[in-house]
Design goal:
This protein is α+β, with helices and mostly antiparallel strands. Helix content is 38%, strand content 22%. The model is unreliable at 9-75 (pLDDT under 50).
Length: 204
């Protein structure tokens, strides 16, 4: 290439280098298992686009990207049931409401847990924009399929109770994890009693 040609294309080369450097400033690495992938910020749509190894594209809201239940819940300005309300504090800090427990192989609401469910319902009534996911669990005993069905019955039993307390169905979702995700990995009655439960996760 002639010397004059080099000077003619120099502005284009410099511009290209600048654009490349600018784009690189918005890229970071995200670990996915044993692989790292690039994450680019799409500022026009307010989304983070994550390039995953199987070439699928996943979008996440920039405002909540990288935030777990604790981070997103902490940003909420929930109404409180009263001064020093423990439930509101729990909702803000962990994105959950009170957990209840079940007797072995049962899905009916225990009498000693009804006050907790009632307080959950009262809190939801004064925070009408909040939606929750009710997660049903079982202990490790029994077949996996049976425990999934039992967890589902527990979640739906809680859902019906909240509906009877005035919470509309559109604000409630249910899911069963069966014996998966135990809070206590032990293999004794104390652990099993803790794992037979329904959890309430704030979903928005």
């Amino acid at each position: 290439m002639k010397r004059n040609d080099i000077f003619r294309f120099l502005p284009i080369i410099i511009t290209s280098i600048g654009l490349t450097a600018g784009c690189g400033a918005h890229l970071s690495k995200v670990e996915m298992g044993d692989k790292a992938v690039d994450v680019g910020a799409d500022k026009s749509g307010g989304k983070n686009i994550v390039a995953v190894p199987d070439e699928k594209v996943v979008t996440e809201d920039v405002k909540t990207s990288g935030m777990g239940a604790k981070g997103s819940a902490a940003a909420k300005d929930y109404k409180s049931l009263g001064a020093n309300d423990e439930l509101t504090k729990t909702a803000r800090e962990s994105g959950t409401l009170y957990t209840i427990h079940f007797d072995y192989d049962k899905f009916n609401i225990r009498e000693d847990d009804k006050p907790l469910l009632t307080k959950n319902a009262q809190w939801l009534n004064i925070n009408p924009a909040v939606k929750v996911r009710i997660e049903g669990y079982a202990d490790e005993r029994g077949e996996s399929e049976y425990n999934l069905a039992l967890g589902d019955k527990r979640a739906r039993s809680v859902e019906r109770y909240l509906e009877d307390m005035g919470i509309i169905k559109d604000r409630l979702a249910t899911i069963s994890y069966g014996e998966e995700r135990p809070v206590d990995p032990g293999h004794n009655e104390d652990a099993w009693a803790k794992n037979r439960r329904a959890e309430f996760k704030i979903a928005n």
